């Protein structure tokens, strides 16, 4: 056992009449290991207990008194004259300490608290401890008095001291506890990132968060009631001061999104720093529950409250004595009422939050009208309460014995919109905040403003490269499709001499029949115009779509999927397959069937005759009907059940239409922006459209915005001398600044190898995200009928029959519920389930998802 | 002439060999008056010259060296060894100074600069002046040595000193100038808002901005080339330090949105404060061009650059000597290269901005596809470049002799979306930033998260109060309408026993004909389903809407408008009017025709028979056709030409439909959220729908979001055991967190008298915004056919004939261009023009708009 006098230089040996026992241990202890678990199993998810209040203490600058506030709160909790229970526990956590051991905030809290016990409630039974887990070599040497090997690594310091103050009340068997912990310490009194640079002892963010997570779970494990335990995490320096890795602390701790107490600045100039720090916390999604400032005679609380619109309380602490010999006991006495109020505020916010969590599912079921949801099938207990998201993960409220926040990977990509990692999400928050402040929303037609222009430029240089020259903005995929149809039909009409002049009153109300050619199983959105372009399905009956007639020639497409580790081609009826060789029907790799060399195959010929035949049959049948546009989802049909269409077939189809002067629309709402591994699926298809629609991932998945790109030839079909010849379609928020700003940031982010490590050196494709062996294995599982893995998408169809097949099926429900327990949030398309990640998600994360899925498949028993 | 030694205590009398002349004036001067102009004319718009670089110097805290940076820049500009021209001008403006006269930053710049001239370029010809415009009584007394009357008011101090340093170069006739100005000064060295509180001398923000605007125009008036003039505005304290009125400076100066130099903090803890200050500036829409920090040996620039992703340069100044007797001359010498780089950065950003302004119109015309716009009719020079918006105003780039930024009131409310004043806009920016950081976007169906729940609650308690119980979210008005139609038809089908079960494969593809009843001239959005619910019009021809058939019974409605100061009712053919009294056809006030007492009038009877007749005739005609929904825009038809429909007629129509069990849809996309003076137009109509659609103003006009509200009875029509009976309609970003957050903030803001001074004491209506007398006057103008004024809308139809009538008309063009010169941005609906403000816009602002409109009507010559 080592005695570390330099570390704990307090008045620990001062006698006190009522003190029965006072012990000071300092020994190496590893009750909480700070090493990451060695297992190759999934990284521990950052589950967070809600069984008691946990807060972070932030400050707008260094030296403003965070540690005084922590100490005051500890005293208010444990030494209250009116305790809420016989015994309470206060856990103080200092994740990062520099200037150690001469500066040690956890030692300060420990020491001051002990003094306050003796001063205020000497009869009280309380045990207080202070524990320092890890330290840099030089900080450890300063404590231990000798150095050790392993330059640059952190030492398991495990310095521990404990005091038991067993007052008269001890007899009752009750004892309160103060637990202080410093997780990591460095010797120099500088910013942690600099200390690491100079002394070594790097800590990856992930490891730091895991250790912190375990510290936060301390108080929730001993079964005390909610009100009896408190945890407080005290940060280092200001809100945006770097942590050990250089990550700003406000970003570093974001996954826990703990409610915040902000220690502001009561000095001259302090209003500004306090407000800015508050805004930095808000810009990372934190809830600031109270602001505390020291009184410097400048009544800074008045402008602060005015700025805050009285939504956040501002508490004022008495001036702190400047004399370093002052033991602060009188100051703590004077501050008692403030800390007591602060504690009450924190407790009431905590209680309200828990209450709201419990109320939300019922409220939601009572007043929401969820889309695509049969409310009768959603009992209150299955409603997911989402507290927040951080990158790819939801934080959801759960109850198992106690309340907690669980992390779930958003494997439905929130209806295929999602792309941001945690870093991009915060960058987007700042950028859309900027766009809102700079532009709000401004009128688009005949105007130009930077975000819209830059967005249009990036679209034309990216997904529209080589063919598109115009960008038309709208709000969602569905409207983008309706616009595309209008564009295509106009172009078709001009090209085929069908002129019904809308400026001529005689032709108003007259119309000819113009339809699309499309593929069965494709889906283009929910508005009527988009709906008309899809084949009849369970979505299109009278009760759903009273005006639907199905304005198209709908072809059965050939699909490709993996089964038992082999890619197989499934041909529709009508495609001549007698003469085809086996190698035209099965493939060892994706590269084979995406190869352009298939253009000369006999299958290409079969496709071409099949399409010609269908077109001739249709025009023979209908006489006056025109096919005015081709519309396809390139490569993969999304909503239709994640079917991969043979790219050769789609390429032949495009060529057949082009030769007939039928404009070609690519619906890239689902497939665009790296969803399938390339920025545009047209790259995979090796052919280009005349018109293409984008939405979903375009803004990084953060805000609605859609674009319809078109060639100059299409655009020119709307030129004329009258406004009535223009495209008279537009939505109020066309090209809104926030959406365009988010798109600009995301489009650049996804394709930049600096920000997206999945971008391959050539920059045209994402690296493979789904482990080939695992994919094979799953495709060979008896419960699995077929698998599709491409880009950010992994989909499988469960073997099923009868009513278990199709969109209405609840077949996959039990599997989904199990996977949610594993921290994977899925949403099925009937008996088709899929995992979808973002363009920046690491292959390691994807493998963890596949492993979890495989494990659950093993135990899958259809309901 | 007064000599104020305390004010300018520099080494002004030190002799120098090459000094030819040095004069020190201090006298009262009013070349720039700081009083507002007394005229009742419109408040001077905050036009901003772009003829030379103008920057604001901000700091993350007080005492970081803003004034050193200003001085260094002045020297870099005027004393460069390689001047860009013979003579240059540097204008230094300190709007707000406290601690005066002992602290005077403008005096510091003046003095140090003079010293630097003598040190660096004694042969140089330069004139330097320092001028203090206004001071509080006690600051003035400290300067003048005597007090004066008028406690609490600002004094015209006009302290002025000037030095002419006529070096050898003077012979060449060229002379450079440094102009330093302090606009307002207070004596105590505290925050300006506190100084005002203690010493008096309040300055309204508007006045301060006007004076600053005039100071900023100084350099642009003398015809120098762009590179020769620089202006720098130095703020007081930190970025969010309060100004004299208490408004935070970052908010106060926002209307100019000057590009920013941020002086950061190089000390321990300074990274955090610098980043937070940067974020506060971004959250107000400022562009930060460079960050400057003082070297404190902590290499704070490294994490700053990492945070900034190298997008903003960080410059490091040498350590500033702490010795107060140091004259800093050596420090300025050592800093010369840094200031020179800073100046180059500022110059290049400035030049690029101007260049981009000039390029944007052509780029826009080349790659945008504007909605509702015939591109051929938009020459490059008519494209408006919008640099930003602040509250109701656009800041647009203009060129007249020189480049400048002009303010234009957004009188089209950017397609009727706008509502925020400048304060709400910044609150929305922070709140949507928070929502993006906390939630990004998360999946909605079967889930609940706070912004969506709170938004739904507010909608049901507000616009849906008394009837709605469910909220369905979508993206825009058009999708909200399609959803409403699906809801209504389902309800109608159930109520009338029409069951085509979409789960029964036999009925898939079968359909019955169900249509709407609607009013001619109403407009419900641009997607096909919404379009089908409107009567044939110039929007619906084959070329525009190839699939349009017009699925409705469309009635001609009676309209009400003001003409010659009288409200007149215009009845459609078919409404029996023989027996009507004159008082049923004209009204002295709006209250008369909105009165529910008209329900018993003979006109109500005529309406009722007219509607019954039409319905019977229709069902007789079509046989199998069902009228499955009523859809109306309550009170005013927006896109149809701003026609006010007789509210009695709409009420009777609703009742007729209800008695036939036809569900009633209110399209409140345009009319909702105070647009017409009430939160919901159904309040004006005194009747309630079964379904209502909202969008546009719902989010305050900042971001797309729509909601379709419905009664429980409508919702229950979708209940069942199968998912396929649910409403299978949804968009990816359904109930996205940012949109809901913006809606929550805006809905509360608009109806709270604390934040919206237009809310009347009863809280149900906005006060009258359009001056009655002006409205009368305009309605009597010979060029005007009719006027509608209601809530935030003022519309008029110009007298016109033939092709000048209707949406395609360009009749109003000349009028619009004139009004844009007056700072009013209008967009016409053919020969109908309108002014639209926000719910918080002051009646004074509205009157200014009406006056400008009236003036331009006087000179209106149709093109």
In the sheet with the most strands of chain A, the strands line up as 5-4-6-3-7-2-8-9-10
Give the CATH level 1 class of the largest domain in chain A.
Answer: Alpha Beta
As a percent range, the share of strand residues of chain A is: 15-25%
Shape, principal axes of CA atoms of chain A? elongated
Estimate nothing, just give the exact number of structural domains of chain A. Answer: 3
Secondary structure layout:
The structure is a homodimer of 863-residue chains.
Chain A (H helix, E strand, L loop, with lengths): L47 E2 L4 E6 L6 H13 L10 E9 L7 H16 L4 E11 L1 H8 L10 E12 L9 E10 L6 H8 L5 H12 L12 E6 L14 H4 L7 E4 L6 H13 L5 E7 L6 H7 L6 E4 L11 H39 L16 E7 L2 E8 L1 E9 L2 H4 L5 H17 L8 E2 L1 H12 L8 E5 L2 H19 L18 E6 L8 H5 L19 E4 L3 E5 L2 E5 L15 E2 L2 H5 L7 H21 L3 E7 L3 E2 L5 E3 L1 H13 L4 E4 L13 H5 L5 E4 L11 E5 L1 H5 L20 H15 L20 H8 L4 E7 L2 E6 L14 H9 L2 E2 L6 E5 L6 H16 L5
Helix pairs in contact in A: 1-2, 1-9, 11-20, 12-20, 16-17, 21-23
